[in-house]
Amino acid sequence: MLALTRRHAGNYCVDTAFLGAVASPYFWSDADVSDENEAASGEYERERVPDRALQGAGSFWGMYAGEHTAGTEFMIGPLFVAWGADAFDLIVGLLVGNLLAVLTWRYVTAPIATSQRLTLYYQLEKICGRDLVTLYNFANGLLFCFLAGAMVTVSATAVGVPFGDAVQMPTFADRMPTGAPWVLICLAIGAVMTLVAAKGYAVVAKVSQVAAPWMFLMFVACGVTVLARLGTTDVVSLLGATEGSEPKIGFWGIVCFAWFCNAAMHLGMADLSVLRFAKKPSYGWASSAGMFLGHYIAWICAALLLVYWVRVHGVDPAEGKPPGDMVFDAVGWAGVLCVIIAGWTTANPTIYRAGLAFQGMFPSMSRVTGTVLAGAVCTIASVFPAFAMQLLDFVGIYGTILAPVGAVIVVDHYLAPRLGFESSYAAKSGIGFNVAVIVAWLLPVGIAMWLFTYYGTPPYFLPLPCWIACGVIYALLSKLTQRRPAVVEGVQ
């Protein structure tokens, strides 16, 4: 499995997004060993996936279901409660937003993936140039580290449960480390996760295969337990705006968050690297397994945990309660184990992806070195609760920075011939840095970050306008600045 994401000799751009899916235990069956071995040379990294390597629909349904039931789900649901979401906004908003996400995977990402059958990184290299993809790898790798750090933070709240009051757990209001014991726990978990990631993905994949269905059932068990304790099945009344919470997010905010929390994967085209193995575009519907099991049911069950603690124990919703404590109270030690494993099985591939991204920047760097570097950044980030406790904002920023690049691919695929400029311009002209792409990418992202920083614009509203602006700017600049290139040998 790892061979499929291994950097080919001389290949500066690394298939980081492909790792989390193809290395998933759901993706390859024993019958696929011959294709896996045949891919060991990395041949699919820089060419179309051959028909013999295409996968059936079941591979994608299982992959998406497992990948999107993660440790961070224990944070996102309670954060909606803390931000004053009411029942209608949460239940209907998540339904609409997740549906839009599925439609984006199906009708934006999957058609290009199954037409080109190239990784995101190789397709970007052909359009942008190898040097610009190196810059993208840096941004991607750094954001992966921060995301993995948030997952380590979630796991640390569970590891701290046996220590009781000796470890001061962070609340939603905390941004800095809460004390030496907390720092030591985060450092220990980060070190173990980095060690496992450096060894390779196989162990994590095996654990994920067993744990993913069980973890989803644990989310459901938490929700059912809370309903039983509160003596009601009226989820709508329980999810009403919690007294003491400050309304920070409404219906459209929840819609946009659910739609764009994975914007880098669908609008940003990272899942080209996954869906290029799909036999047909309709396999994009498989994303609904992750969206409606993980991002709908799991989020609502996690939200009910905080509702219970607010109503019964008088917890301030603005400060929240650490996931480890809430899950331990609901389902005992099995819940603690679930939080640890959920964070572990999602942080490990994320650290591995970040390591591959850093490796792509420095061809002489080994995969292990890149992974250790990523793990060190991730571990340091985990000590600071800000990334996990502000997860709603962070994933919005993540999508805002990475998703716009996908618009370049969409324009290049569908509109370049119609608008009269070259597709795959960097490959055909031999340039390493396409100025039209960097301007189209960074200009709208810079404006978006300015709006977020100085005007407090919620970042989950920003990926779509940035994506549209990037596509428009790229098309205009390409039309105005491209010269007909002398075709590089071997490029069509």
Automatic annotation (TrEMBL):
Signal peptide: none
Gene Ontology MF: a single term: cytosine transmembrane transporter activity
Keywords from the UniProt entry: Membrane, Transmembrane, Transmembrane helix
Transmembrane stretches, start-end: 87-108, 135-159, 179-198, 210-229, 249-268, 289-310, 330-347, 368-388, 394-411, 431-454, 460-477
GO cellular component, as recorded: plasma membrane
Keyword Membrane: yes
PANTHER family to which the protein is assigned, alphabetical: CYTOSINE PERMEASE, CYTOSINE TRANSPORTER CODB
Stated name of the protein: Cytosine permease
Organism: Pirellulimonas nuda
Lineage: Bacteria, Pseudomonadati, Planctomycetota, Planctomycetia, Pirellulales
